[in-house]
Amino acid sequence: MTRIKNAIPKYLSYVVLFLVAAIVLLPIVWLFVSSFKSDADVISWPPSFWPKEWVFDQYQYVADAHSHI
Amino acid sequence: MFRDDRVWNATGNTFWFAILEIPLQIFLALLLTMLMIKNTRIHKVLRATFYIPYICSMTAISILWSMILNPNSGMLAYMLRKIGITMPNLLNSTTWAIVVVALVTVWKNFGYTLTLLSAAALDIPAALYEAAELDGANSFSKFIYVTVPSIRNTISFCIVTTLIATFQAFDQIYVMTGGGPQNSTETLVGYIYSRGFQTTHDLGYASTISVYLFVIIAVITFILRRHTLRGEEES
Predict the structure, then answer these.
(1) How far apart, in whole angstroms, are the C-alpha atoms of residue A43 and residue A23?
(2) Is a pLDDT exceeding 90 seen at residue B201?
């Protein structure tokens, strides 16, 4: 009986923990994935999670801009 | 200064923001501490996950959330429309804008509070829990009667630092609403900025409000500290 009593909160606690983890992680992952989108892709409607095509120009730009300093 | 309506409005907003933010952040951190009381590998991974937003820049987080919450092109609006709900423009509503900003602040900062609290909770000697178990305590009452009293000092430290941080909140409000609809999210620091550097370059007046803000924070911190110190003497 006590085993059942303890098992339910443990299962529930993982539901809560992973729910919060998803709320924390999804925007961050979306942010990271969006860094590979083209400018038009980022603000397109309907919004998509994954880029239509992977663009690396932004990283190129950041690397170049840094070399000017 | 005290005849300026915007000062009173900003004071009210600052307090409302703090009232929304601090309890939510502390209780969320406490709840997650309760659920992650054991130091297993998965708990360590989760704790690291919850800390990620804290290491990001507040400006980047604010831009990210205003993009997600954008009712025309945002991700959340799209998902809500799929299940048949039209997303209201939360950041344009005088009632909800400050709530949203407070929630985003909680989203960013609770990992820090959680780290402090669970570090303190992991330091509690196991003997205390064993004694509680012998008395027939379940995991919830163990948390309420053993963990919380033991990490009291850390909790009060978290409350004080969170309080100071919320009274100085600026970046998230400036980026997400800009003091926004009809000054309904303008906090004291925001008003100091707009008085001193934006519309009128009235630095003297801005300095006066800064001193006023300092006095508010000092008084509240002092009261809280006295309150927690008295608690220590009792126990």
Answers:
(1) 21
(2) no
Mean pLDDT over B10-14 rounds to 91
User: What's the pTM?
Assistant: 0.84
* Residue B74 contacts residue A47 (beta carbons within 8 Å): yes
For residue range B62-93, what is the model confidence (pLDDT) as tens digits? 999 988 888 877 788 888 888 877 777 888 88
Contact B74 A5 (CB under 8 A): no
pLDDT of residue A5 exceeding 60: no
Above 0.95 for ipTM, yes or no?
Answer: no
Contacts of B133 in chain A (CB under 8 A): none
CA distance A19 to chain B (A): 11
Rounded to a whole number, what is the distance in Å from the CA of A45 to chain B's nearest CA?
A: 6
Q: If you ran DSSP here, which 8-state letter would residue B86 be given?
A: P
Nearest to B52 among A13, A24, A30 (CB): A24
